[in-house]
Structure formats: C-alpha cells, structure tokens
UniProtKB/TrEMBL annotation:
Pfam families: HTH_3, Peptidase_S24. This is Helix-turn-helix domain-containing protein. Residues 12-65 form the HTH cro/C1-type domain. It comes from Sinomicrobium pectinilyticum. PROSITE patterns: HTH_CROC1.
Amino acid sequence: MSKSLNTEMQRFKMLRRELNLTQQAFAERLGIRNSTADIERGKTRISGEVVAALLEQFGINPLWLFGKSEQKYLRPAEHSVLPKVVTLNSSENENIVLVNIKASAGYAHNLQDPEWYESLPAFDLPLPEYRNASYRGFQVEGNSMYPVLHSGEWVIARAEEKITDVKENQIYVVVLPDTVVVKKIIISGEKIRLISVNPEYPVIETGIGEVKEIWKVVSKISGQFDIPQNNFGTWAEEIRSELKEIRERLL
C-alpha cells in the first residue's frame, strides 16, 4: 500500500467516525454503492466523484484528504450558504415561501428541486424592509427558543450569503443535511455551535461544511397575544385613598 493511499484511507475513515455515520450511511451520502468498507481497508481508491462529494457535502479540502495540507476544511468565506432555489410571483419578483413544521422535514432534501417549492404557500410583503434580498418563512417547532419564540409561531428570515456574515447575538434558521433548526450561532474554528435560548436544550455542534443554508430571523408572526398584567387600577385606587386621608386630616 502506498503512503498516499494509506493517508487517504486513514483520513477518510477518521472523517466518517467524526461525523458519527455508519459505513452504509456515509456511502449513501457520497453516492457510493454498498458501503465505504473497501475504501477504509485500502482495497478501493477514492474516486474523483467521491472527492467532489466530500467537498460539496462536508466542505472537506481535497488536499487535506490526500495528506498535502493540514487544513481540513475550506475557509468559511468560501462556503456559500445562499438558497439554492428562489420563487417568483406573477410580476417576476421574489415572494416569501412558507415552510411549515411538516414541510421542514423534507426541506433539506429538496433544496435544489424547484417543483417541490411549488407545493408550498407563498405571499408578498410590500414593505421596503423586505426588498432587495431573499426572504423565507419557517414555522417554529418545540420550545428550544422559548421565551423569545413559541412553538407554532412563524419567523420571517433573510438569506445570508456566507457563514462569516453570522453575528453571535442574532437568531438564525440553519438548514442541515437532515433537519432545519432555529438557533443562535457561535463559530469556533471549523466547527459551528448551535445554541438554544432555553438552557434546558443541549448545544448542537457540527462542521461548517454541513450547513446548507442560513437565514437571519428578522421578524415573527405569532398567534399569541398576551396582555401583561396592569396594576394601574390598583395604583389609582391607592392614590385616591391616600388623598382622601390627607383631606380628612386637613379638615
């Protein structure tokens, strides 16, 4: 076995384990028949198609894979997270597609399928702050972002171009290979940490190459209308009582 092949095999296997994927699951993601067992044993060389898939799916630097570089991932600035499909209304202007909880389960698997988007509702928001960018609506599931966001509410989010545009004090919709989450983001080297507002939920950590799209939350649509308790009536009654006592003393 040559030295280059040995490095290639070892790093390929190490990557699969870091991603916590079985040989079969890793093969499916990379378009390999059966499993990755033959590659990991050094019986089969990694094809150009697999190298391209590693780059596209996980942001893996091909030079790192073959032992020619210690930079495992491509720089974040090179990893675009722009939406793969945008939809237009009858006036040829972008509209806002709504992705409900049920649709979000298939969203990550249909990022480049224009026909799939046609099955989703969409609307126009004729306000100046929603122009000159791509916007999308996502329904919130669960209570990980409570009390800022409630389960069932909708967020309207603007597409980000690069991961390096992310700000730590903002909330984002993050599209991963198998799911869509609403989280705060912290970038640490080649890793990205997804943080919930609700401290009861654990931090999700993944590689930058795993992120398919990022949408910055700019507003929300809520069916909840909680009126805070107002003590004005009580205060007014107390003031009237005190004024009455003062008046009686003066008389």
